[in-house]
């Protein structure tokens, strides 16, 4: 009986301390000893247990899906923290569309839990924004996520390695089959990446067309291995293979 009272006392004391320190869960607003309380962290939408190691879409009985075997993309692997579903979409939107830059290190921490199990690349290349889009938004969300990610995993950031030279319409507003055509030839690179393993960092991967186009550019400049690191992966059955 004494142990029960002790546990209740300690839990109440911890809640009081957290309240005084102003630490609250970003999702539910309850007192927390981190950015997310344990119930909310447990509720985050995980990837399916069996998913393709290349494109991260659901797969059964294999490590690589049939589509990636039949038409291999320019990247070797995708590491995604979670599915792009509630409440991950709310966390991403908070950074991307509400300029809540304090969310960037939170998303970096979530992605780091998956990266710990992956080969560490030589460099991290944040997905570039066109200068017009960068001026409109005021920041590159991939670069902001990458700042903490780079420090924690030890891979240097190369934010200037590639540039987006065409200000194309947003991929999100286009039909699935138009996305690969829309993104073709939009990147350029002036950096020698001979023999390097590069991780492309982005917030969300939908069809993979943008990731694939940048991976092609990196390989043309010497990269021997390209990984995709994304905070969230859309689980639509339509992918770059169908574009």
Automatic annotation (TrEMBL):
Q: Which UniProt keywords apply?
A: Glycosyltransferase, Transferase
Where does the record locate the signal sequence feature? Answer: none
Taking every annotated instance into account, which residue ranges of this chain make up the domain Double zinc ribbon? 17-69
Which GO molecular-function terms appear in the entry?
Answer: glycosyltransferase activity
Task: Kindly name one Pfam family recorded for this protein.
Answer: DZR_2
Question: In the UniProt record, does the keyword Glycosyltransferase occur?
Answer: yes
Ranges for the Phosphoribosyltransferase domain? 189-235
To which protein family does this belong? Belongs to the ComF/GntX family.
Q: What is this protein called?
A: Phosphoribosyltransferase
Recorded source organism is Nitrosospira lacus
């Amino acid at each position: 009986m004494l142990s029960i009272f002790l546990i209740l006392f300690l839990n109440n004391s911890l809640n009081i301390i957290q309240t005084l320190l102003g630490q609250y869960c970003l999702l539910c607003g309850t007192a927390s000893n981190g950015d997310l309380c344990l119930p909310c962290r447990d509720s985050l939408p995980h990837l399916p247990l069996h998913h393709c190691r290349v494109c991260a879409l659901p797969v059964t009985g294999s490590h690589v899906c049939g589509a990636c075997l039949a038409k291999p993309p320019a990247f070797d692997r995708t590491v995604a923290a979670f599915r792009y579903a509630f409440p991950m979409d709310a966390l991403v939107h908070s950074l991307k569309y509400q300029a809540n830059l304090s969310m960037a290190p939170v998303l970096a921490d979530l992605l780091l839990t998956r990266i710990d199990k992956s080969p560490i690349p030589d460099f991290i290349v944040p997905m570039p924004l066109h200068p017009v889009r960068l001026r409109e938004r005021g920041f590159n969300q991939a670069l902001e996520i990458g700042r903490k990610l780079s420090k924690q995993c030890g891979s240097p950031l190369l934010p200037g390695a590639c540039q987006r030279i065409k200000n194309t319409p947003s991929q999100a507003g286009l039909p699935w089959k138009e996305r690969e055509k829309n993104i073709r030839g939009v990147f350029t690179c002036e950096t020698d990446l001979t023999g390097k393993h590069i991780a492309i960092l982005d917030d969300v991967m939908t069809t993979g067309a943008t990731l694939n186009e940048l991976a092609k550019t990196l390989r043309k400049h010497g990269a021997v291995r390209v990984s995709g690191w994304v905070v969230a992966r859309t689980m639509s059955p339509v992918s770059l293979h169908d574009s």
